[in-house]
Amino acid sequence: MSARLVLASGSGVRAMLLRNAGLDFDVQPADVDEDAIKQAFSDLSPEDLALKLAEEKALAISAVRSGDLVIGADQILECDGVLFDKPKGYDGARDHMNKLRGRTHRLIAASCVAEGGEILWRNVEEARLTMRDFSDEFLDHYLATAGDGILASVGAYRLEEMGIQLFEKIDGDQTTILGLPLLPLFGFLRGRDVMAG
User: Fold this and answer.
1) CATH at 160
2) CA distance 21 to 1
3) Catalytic residues
4) Which of 53, 61, 68, 125 could form a disulfide with 4 if both were Cys (CB 3.0 to 4.6 A apart)?
5) Is residue 196 assigned to a domain?
6) 197 lies in a domain?
7) What's this model's pTM, rounded to 2 decimal places?
Protein backbone atom coordinates (compact mmCIF):
# COMPACT_ATOMS: atom_id res chain seq x y z
CA MET A 1 0.00 0.00 0.00
CA SER A 2 1.37 3.45 -0.88
CA ALA A 3 2.03 6.11 1.73
CA ARG A 4 -0.89 8.29 2.76
CA LEU A 5 -0.83 12.00 3.46
CA VAL A 6 -2.03 12.71 7.00
CA LEU A 7 -2.99 16.03 8.60
CA ALA A 8 -2.08 15.90 12.30
CA SER A 9 -4.53 18.65 13.18
CA GLY A 10 -8.16 18.90 14.20
CA SER A 11 -8.47 22.30 12.51
CA GLY A 12 -11.40 22.33 10.14
CA VAL A 13 -9.90 25.31 8.33
CA ARG A 14 -6.60 23.52 7.62
CA ALA A 15 -8.48 20.48 6.35
CA MET A 16 -10.66 22.72 4.18
CA LEU A 17 -7.58 24.37 2.65
CA LEU A 18 -6.09 21.00 1.68
CA ARG A 19 -9.42 19.62 0.46
CA ASN A 20 -10.21 22.70 -1.62
CA ALA A 21 -6.76 22.43 -3.21
CA GLY A 22 -7.61 18.91 -4.37
CA LEU A 23 -5.47 16.82 -2.01
CA ASP A 24 -6.47 13.37 -0.80
CA PHE A 25 -5.51 12.95 2.86
CA ASP A 26 -6.50 11.54 6.23
CA VAL A 27 -7.12 13.62 9.34
CA GLN A 28 -5.67 12.34 12.60
CA PRO A 29 -5.35 15.07 15.24
CA ALA A 30 -2.31 14.80 17.48
CA ASP A 31 -2.96 14.65 21.21
CA VAL A 32 -0.12 16.84 22.47
CA ASP A 33 -0.15 19.11 25.52
CA GLU A 34 0.38 22.48 23.85
CA ASP A 35 0.41 24.38 27.16
CA ALA A 36 3.16 22.13 28.55
CA ILE A 37 5.23 22.60 25.37
CA LYS A 38 4.78 26.37 25.52
CA GLN A 39 5.91 26.40 29.16
CA ALA A 40 8.87 24.10 28.58
CA PHE A 41 10.08 26.13 25.59
CA SER A 42 9.08 29.63 26.70
CA ASP A 43 12.58 30.92 25.90
CA LEU A 44 12.11 30.22 22.17
CA SER A 45 11.26 32.93 19.67
CA PRO A 46 7.63 32.94 18.48
CA GLU A 47 8.81 31.46 15.17
CA ASP A 48 10.73 28.63 16.84
CA LEU A 49 7.90 27.96 19.28
CA ALA A 50 5.35 27.66 16.48
CA LEU A 51 7.70 25.27 14.68
CA LYS A 52 8.26 23.22 17.85
CA LEU A 53 4.50 22.81 18.30
CA ALA A 54 4.05 21.81 14.64
CA GLU A 55 6.89 19.30 14.88
CA GLU A 56 5.57 17.70 18.08
CA LYS A 57 2.18 17.16 16.42
CA ALA A 58 3.71 15.67 13.28
CA LEU A 59 6.05 13.40 15.25
CA ALA A 60 3.25 12.16 17.54
CA ILE A 61 1.21 10.91 14.58
CA SER A 62 4.27 9.78 12.62
CA ALA A 63 5.10 7.45 15.51
CA VAL A 64 1.89 5.49 14.87
CA ARG A 65 1.77 5.96 11.08
CA SER A 66 5.43 5.49 10.27
CA GLY A 67 4.98 4.82 6.56
CA ASP A 68 2.90 7.92 5.90
CA LEU A 69 3.75 11.58 5.33
CA VAL A 70 2.37 13.54 8.28
CA ILE A 71 1.72 17.28 8.15
CA GLY A 72 2.05 19.17 11.42
CA ALA A 73 1.04 22.81 11.74
CA ASP A 74 0.67 25.47 14.39
CA GLN A 75 0.15 29.19 14.60
CA ILE A 76 1.29 31.82 17.09
CA LEU A 77 -0.14 35.32 17.43
CA GLU A 78 2.31 37.92 18.71
CA CYS A 79 1.51 41.55 19.45
CA ASP A 80 3.98 43.96 21.07
CA GLY A 81 6.03 41.06 22.42
CA VAL A 82 3.03 39.26 23.97
CA LEU A 83 1.91 35.81 22.75
CA PHE A 84 -1.82 35.14 22.63
CA ASP A 85 -3.62 31.85 23.20
CA LYS A 86 -7.13 30.96 22.06
CA PRO A 87 -9.61 33.03 24.08
CA LYS A 88 -11.39 31.48 27.01
CA GLY A 89 -15.03 32.30 26.35
CA TYR A 90 -16.50 35.55 25.13
CA ASP A 91 -14.91 37.56 27.96
CA GLY A 92 -11.54 36.29 26.74
CA ALA A 93 -12.45 37.20 23.16
CA ARG A 94 -13.37 40.74 24.28
CA ASP A 95 -10.05 41.02 26.10
CA HIS A 96 -8.19 39.90 22.96
CA MET A 97 -10.04 42.46 20.84
CA ASN A 98 -9.29 45.27 23.29
CA LYS A 99 -5.59 44.41 23.26
CA LEU A 100 -5.37 44.05 19.47
CA ARG A 101 -7.51 46.93 18.21
CA GLY A 102 -5.60 49.82 16.76
CA ARG A 103 -2.39 47.74 16.65
CA THR A 104 -0.49 45.54 14.25
CA HIS A 105 0.03 41.90 15.21
CA ARG A 106 1.87 39.01 13.62
CA LEU A 107 0.43 35.63 12.76
CA ILE A 108 3.29 33.13 12.57
CA ALA A 109 2.32 29.89 10.83
CA ALA A 110 4.69 26.95 11.08
CA SER A 111 4.34 23.71 9.19
CA CYS A 112 6.38 20.57 8.77
CA VAL A 113 6.22 17.08 7.34
CA ALA A 114 7.37 13.97 9.19
CA GLU A 115 7.89 10.41 8.04
CA GLY A 116 8.98 7.46 10.16
CA GLY A 117 9.46 9.63 13.24
CA GLU A 118 11.75 12.10 11.46
CA ILE A 119 11.07 15.67 10.33
CA LEU A 120 11.77 15.85 6.58
CA TRP A 121 10.72 19.44 5.93
CA ARG A 122 9.90 22.54 7.96
CA ASN A 123 8.72 26.04 7.14
CA VAL A 124 7.69 29.24 8.92
CA GLU A 125 5.70 32.07 7.31
CA GLU A 126 4.44 35.34 8.75
CA ALA A 127 1.56 37.71 8.08
CA ARG A 128 1.07 41.16 9.60
CA LEU A 129 -2.44 42.37 10.32
CA THR A 130 -3.44 45.84 11.47
CA MET A 131 -6.71 45.92 13.35
CA ARG A 132 -8.66 49.13 13.03
CA ASP A 133 -9.54 51.16 16.12
CA PHE A 134 -13.22 50.22 16.06
CA SER A 135 -15.81 51.47 18.53
CA ASP A 136 -17.02 49.65 21.63
CA GLU A 137 -20.42 49.42 19.92
CA PHE A 138 -18.90 47.61 16.96
CA LEU A 139 -17.07 45.25 19.32
CA ASP A 140 -20.35 44.42 21.07
CA HIS A 141 -22.00 43.78 17.70
CA TYR A 142 -19.09 41.63 16.52
CA LEU A 143 -19.07 39.45 19.63
CA ALA A 144 -22.85 39.05 19.50
CA THR A 145 -22.94 37.95 15.87
CA ALA A 146 -19.58 36.35 14.96
CA GLY A 147 -20.44 32.95 16.48
CA ASP A 148 -18.60 30.41 18.61
CA GLY A 149 -16.04 29.75 15.86
CA ILE A 150 -14.02 32.76 17.01
CA LEU A 151 -13.25 30.93 20.26
CA ALA A 152 -11.27 28.34 18.26
CA SER A 153 -9.10 31.07 16.73
CA VAL A 154 -6.02 32.42 18.48
CA GLY A 155 -6.98 35.99 17.55
CA ALA A 156 -10.70 35.59 18.31
CA TYR A 157 -11.54 36.26 14.68
CA ARG A 158 -12.09 34.33 11.48
CA LEU A 159 -10.82 36.38 8.60
CA GLU A 160 -12.79 34.31 6.10
CA GLU A 161 -16.00 35.39 7.83
CA MET A 162 -17.12 38.53 9.68
CA GLY A 163 -13.65 38.99 11.17
CA ILE A 164 -12.51 40.70 7.97
CA GLN A 165 -14.42 43.79 9.17
CA LEU A 166 -11.97 44.19 12.07
CA PHE A 167 -9.01 45.11 9.87
CA GLU A 168 -7.67 48.12 8.02
CA LYS A 169 -4.53 46.51 6.56
CA ILE A 170 -3.32 42.96 5.94
CA ASP A 171 0.12 41.97 4.66
CA GLY A 172 0.59 38.28 4.00
CA ASP A 173 -0.64 35.21 2.24
CA GLN A 174 -4.23 34.18 2.98
CA THR A 175 -3.27 30.56 3.69
CA THR A 176 -0.65 31.76 6.19
CA ILE A 177 -3.34 33.76 7.96
CA LEU A 178 -5.59 30.70 8.00
CA GLY A 179 -2.84 28.61 9.61
CA LEU A 180 -1.36 26.43 6.86
CA PRO A 181 0.82 28.14 4.22
CA LEU A 182 0.07 26.01 1.17
CA LEU A 183 2.53 27.11 -1.51
CA PRO A 184 5.74 26.10 0.35
CA LEU A 185 4.09 22.84 1.44
CA PHE A 186 3.04 22.05 -2.11
CA GLY A 187 6.59 22.63 -3.31
CA PHE A 188 7.79 19.96 -0.89
CA LEU A 189 4.98 17.54 -1.77
CA ARG A 190 5.68 17.86 -5.51
CA GLY A 191 9.31 16.99 -4.80
CA ARG A 192 8.05 13.80 -3.14
CA ASP A 193 5.68 13.05 -6.05
CA VAL A 194 2.69 13.35 -3.72
CA MET A 195 1.32 16.06 -5.99
CA ALA A 196 1.47 16.30 -9.75
CA GLY A 197 4.34 18.45 -11.02
Assistant:
1) 3.90.950.10
2) 24
3) 74
4) 68
5) no
6) no
7) 0.93
